[in-house]
Amino acid sequence: MKIMTVVGARPQFIKAAPLSRALRKSHREVLVHTGQHYDRAMSQQFFDQMGIPRPDHNLEVGSGSHGLQTGQMLIRLEPLMLKEKPDAVVVFGDTNSTLAGALAAAKLHIPVAHIEAGMRSFNRLMPEELNRVAADHLSDVNFCSTRTAVMNLKREGVTGGVHLVGDIMVDSLNLFLPEPAASAEILGEYGVAPGSFLLATIHRAENTDSRKRLGEIVSALSRSDYLILFPAHPRTLARLKSFGLLARAGDCEKLRLIPPLGYVESLALQSRARAVITDSGGVQKEAYLLRTPCLTVRTETEWVETVESGWNRLVGVDREKIARALRRVARPRSHPRLYGNGKTAERIVACLERRFGR
Ligand code: UD1
Ligand code: UDP
């Protein structure tokens, strides 16, 4: 079986790592990097750290408006798919690279498999929501992380080719979560002690592209009693600069802006933080898996189970609400297994084999 995997953004490298390992045991993978993320800290460091094979093709699309970026990907993917003639194309998550991979393949009548299908925020203002809905409906096979995702698809009439396989980020975490001694070393490098700090990641367009919202978030974080490590996504750093908020963030001794973390460092710091504050989908999930309380700087989430279980709280961008939540973080007693047993990659490969194996 020959599978083309399309990746382009940080969370997709992280999800591709376990799939690539499982796939390459007995099949051919053609790995395509769209070039959506290109800074070393956003791309190459994950390939190096996670041993992801070098992409067979890098489309070097880079940044741009949604139409430009997605359009360039389509233009560059089509001839590649025609040349490589894969048995199926695999896409992950909800980025512009996901949409372009799914659309290019579907138009060429190449079967599409979508990993992390069926997630919904029901907020069509998010670019990711449009990408998810379109990718799910273009796909022949939808691999769902949760029952909620299966139900979301059912409500939209997508029932054929839907497989509940658990979440592939559990596989990634199991492969790369450092041992306690290595975690302690990483904490030492950042000069923090377990439980004494918070980890913040903010990058969603709806939070970073508005001066008011980003300002509210910086104000709330600045009022924390605990040190906050804030690995800044390049989008966030650019907006902090252009909105004149960088000095305010930099002046606050409790808020420490740092470059984007490697995956291993991200897991180590999340696992030992008092809490994480985020608008990332992946980080909400990882915080749960690592039993670290999470405050989500949004008013809705796709990962509803983390909220229902009490480990994740939606705090929006309200300064008071964030500050209050920071003072009282909950650590519920129960911790149900929400995202499968870490064998998701194997399950996906077995299913692809049944459908597309020759
Ligand atoms: C994208 C995804 C988002 C995902 C996130 C993961 C879309 C619509 N959004 O958002 O769902 O959660 O990736 O991190 O696909 N930039 C750099 N260097 C880079 C990459 C980006 O400087 O290596 C800057 C550029 O100014 C760029 C901006 O960040 O315009 C935004 O990048 P882009 O890939 O368009 O979206 P993300 O915010 O990263
Ligand atoms: N992550 C990382 N370094 C960072 C911030 C996040 O390695 O500085 C990892 C994090 O551990 C998770 C993934 O990136 O595995 C989440 O990706 P991101 O937040 O970029 O996108 P989203 O999940 O929101 O689409």
Could you provide a short overview of the structure?
The protein is of the alpha/beta class.
Summarize the helices and strands and which ones pair or pack.
Layout: E1 2-7, H1 10-24, E2 28-33, H2 44-50, E3 57-58, H3 66-84, E4 88-92, H4 96-107, E5 112-117, H5 127-138, E6 141-144, H6 147-155, E7 162-164, H7 168-176, H8 180-189, E8 197-201, H9 205-208, H10 211-222, E9 227-231, H11 234-242, H12 246-251, E10 255-258, H13 263-272, E11 275-278, H14 281-289, E12 294-296, H15 304-308, E13 312-314, H16 319-327, H17 344-356
Parallel strand pairs: 1-2, 1-4, 2-3, 4-5, 5-6, 6-7, 8-9, 8-11, 9-10, 11-12, 12-13
Helix pairs in contact: 1-7, 1-17, 3-4, 4-5, 8-13, 10-16
The chain binds uridine-diphosphate-N-acetylglucosamine (UD1) and uridine-5'-diphosphate.
Uridine-diphosphate-N-acetylglucosamine (UD1) binds next to helix 1, helix 5 and helix 11.
Strand order of the largest sheet: 3-2-1-4-5-6-7
Structural class: alpha/beta
CATH class of the largest domain: Alpha Beta
Number of domains: 2
In CATH, the architecture of the largest domain is 3-Layer(aba) Sandwich
Helix and strand run: EHEHEHEHEHEHEHHEHHEHHEHEHEHEHH
CATH topology of the largest domain: Rossmann fold
Measured distance between first and last alpha carbons: 6 Å
Mind telling me the CATH superfamily name of the largest domain?
Answer: Glycogen Phosphorylase B
Mean pLDDT: 96
What ligands can be seen in this structure?
uridine-diphosphate-N-acetylglucosamine, uridine-5'-diphosphate
- Tally of individual helices: 17
